[in-house]
Amino acid sequence: MSTTRINRFVAKAGQAEALKAFLSQLIPYITASTGCEGCELFQQENQKTEFYIVEKWHSKADHQASIAGFPKEKMQAAMDLLAEAPQGNYYQLC
CATH assignment of 3-81, given 1.10.600.10, 3.40.630.30, 3.30.70.100, 3.40.50.150? Predict the structure, then answer.
């Protein structure tokens, strides 16, 4: 059964464009990962510092394998752009 992962990111003041650029660069990596069925980046209309990545996966295990393969130093560098820790959860279609 497929699963959806919804991730929330909030940029520090003055860092929204830099965070958007970083997150945009993640999309090709995610979509090329085994088991990815789709991935989209959204920016909140009224709060330009808030972003969501919505990912569709064949399985939760495929998503977790994708995360394990992403270079940790790239993600660590992006942490300086964030106002708070990223949040994410898995969802099933009802």
Answer: 3.30.70.100
